[in-house]
Amino acid sequence: MQALVASIQDFFIDLKKNRLAYYYTLPAFLVMGFVILYPFLYNIVLSLSNMSLTHFRNWRIIGFQQYISVFSEPVFYWVLLKTIIWTAVNVFFHVTIGVSLALLLNRPLWGRSIFRTLLILPWAVPQYITALTWRGMFHYRYGAINLILVKYFGVHQIQWLSTPLGAFAAVLITNIWLGFPFMMVIALGGLQSIPRELYEAAEVDGAGRFQQLKNVTLPLLKPVMIPAISLGIIWTFNNFNVIWLVSNGGQPADSTHILVSYVYKAVFNYYRYGYAAALSMVIFGILLLISVRFIKQTRATKGVY
Amino acid sequence: MAGSLKKKDPWWLTVLIYLILMVFTLVAVYPILRVISISLRPGNLLHSTSLRLIPRNATLDSYRVLFTEKPFLRWLLNSTVVSGMVTLLGVGLASTAGYAFSRFNFKLKEAGMISVIMTQMFPVTMLLIPLFVMLIHLHLYDTFIGLVIAYSATVLPFCIWQMKGYYDTIPVSLEEAARIDGATHFGAFYRIVLPLASPALVITALFSFMGSWSEYLVAAVILNDRRLFTLPLGLKQFQSNFDTEWGLYAAGAVVVSIPVILLFLFLSRWLISGLTLGSVKG
Which of A224, A300, B46, B79 meets the CB 3.0–4.6 Å disulfide criterion with B231? Predict the structure, then answer.
């Protein structure tokens, strides 16, 4: 960020010195500026305005009113809490399942590549298809999940999509299913880059299986996993598709919303443009805070940039 | 654990590992098999409580209807065109930008990298309305060009980050040697570094393609003309009515997923070595 404040003169000297670097990055930043930076600035303006269905053309700047209403509506805190639970549960299972499977797959094993290939599948299926398919599988009468539960486990049918708790469990299960292969692949890549000599040295020192895992494998995996986990947190926090498509827009009664789907509802169902823009800014702020803290705490900055 | 070379696993551990792997594999594969199974059901059995994977009286009727009575081929063509353009643009721009971030120490480097990461934190709703307004002003609303530009911008941050991470693992000495042999700066990049980075290029291409092949929300906002519909918009139609056309949906889902699944499986080896996220330095 300091680079931004650096004097203009410095910048021009740099422009001459590293002209090639600017040529290389310019096209990408033009496209991103066009589609991301401009909407971002526009969104800031909107968040300070009173734009809504009744004030669609004759909107004006009203200051921080929309932010005040974001923070004064109790529903915001409830949705925020759910978003945090949603993110924490998802990322926890993605990482534990992903890393565990990677550890299992990283040993000499017959059929290893078959398992690896099949375990990547949930990632390969387009997300919206996963979501719509799981929605079908959670159907009370015809869905595979209830059919299997009744037939093989003797459990009663569960009202997945019609109760708030059931629907939340359903979106969680769907998203855990589609998210663990990413972490598994990252972990596999990381495991491959750990030099074998380290294990040989550990064995010479008399370290057992568990000690090798704890003192060699996991610490060396950490720098690889941290950027992936940060990305995972951000993506999960903002995951619109799964929530929206599995619970069909937040059903029952808007009870499954996380922040991003809640904003979408505010825009496209209630036409509260100014309010939605302010809430979007708040979401962005929260994510920025979380990521900065997370990256700082784990001191992975060197690896990330 | 992972690297124990000499000691052999006790038999119960091997059994346990296979058991765990098999359970997870079953869970990973089952929903996919289920969709295939539904796509093969005859029309009168769509609402059925059967768990058979190959349904009674299995038929390809849903596929026939999909290809002959619905504009599925058009959606397929549209999605292919859009995804192909996004892939070209994504790979082209990310491979150069990532290179600059890896090799040069320029003033805006840190700010640039941070802003690349920050774009990932924008909730999609934040971009949708302004994008919508802007595309209307530029007469790009309801066009493929508008959609391609929007998609490229959303896939670029991850691709740049990913390419930069991979370039970091390629020793600079290789380019320096090429420069001494008389290659230009760009020549060294193009002839020496780029070929070495092919695993990362493949991954970048895969992500650019996937990102646009399976995107629903932005397409729903930008495209209005039914003739321009991409696959996600088309398939959602089967579900948007009061009575979901499960057979058609399932058949469509199978056809849409097969190319990406095949790509993934084909590239899965590269996926592990090419997806670095910028920190593998042995």
Answer: B79
Residue whose structure tokens are 């019609």: A162
**Domain spans, chain B:** 11-59, 70-274
Alpha carbon B93 to its chain's center? 17
Cα nearest neighbour of A208 on chain B: B1
Query: Distance (Å, rounded) from C-alpha B130 to C-alpha A61?
Result: 16
Q: What angle do CA B197, B202, B203 make, to 5 degrees?
A: 100
What contacts A140, CB < 8 A, 6 or more positions away? A146, A157, A159, A160, A161, A162
Q: ipTM more than 0.85?
A: no
Sole residue written with tokens 């979007």:
A280
Domain B70-274 classification at class level: mainly alpha
Helix (H) or strand (E) holding A5: helix A2-5
Distances (CA, A) of A25 to A207, B36, B95, B163, B230: 48, 44, 9, 13, 30
Q: Which of A267, A136, A122 is nearest to B129 (CA)?
A: A267
Contact B105, A34 (CB under 8 A): no
Q: Do A231 and B120 touch (CB under 8 A)?
A: yes
Residue A103 Cα distances to A185, A192, B9, B20, angstroms: 11, 10, 14, 12
Interface test with A, best of B25, B107, B175 (most A CBs within 10 A): B107
- Has domain A64-304 been given CATH number 1.10.3720.10? yes
CB contact under 8 A, A277 and B129: yes
Crossing angle, helix A259-268 and helix B124-137, to 10 degrees? 40
**SS3 assignment, position B242:** coil
A68 vs A49: CA distance, rounded Å: 12
pLDDT one digit per residue (tens) for chain A, 305 residues: 555 565 677 777 777 778 888 888 888 888 887 778 888 888 899 899 888 877 777 788 888 889 999 999 999 999 999 999 999 999 999 999 999 999 999 888 888 889 998 999 999 898 888 998 899 899 888 888 999 998 888 888 899 988 999 999 999 999 999 999 999 998 998 888 888 888 888 888 888 888 888 888 888 888 888 888 988 998 899 998 899 888 888 888 888 899 999 998 888 788 888 899 999 999 999 998 888 877 676 654 444 43
Residues 146-185 of A with CB under 8 A from B: 147-148, 151, 177, 181, 185
Measure the CA dihedral A167/B245/A131/A262, to 10°. -60
Instruction: Break chain A into its structural domains and give their ranges.
Output: 64-304
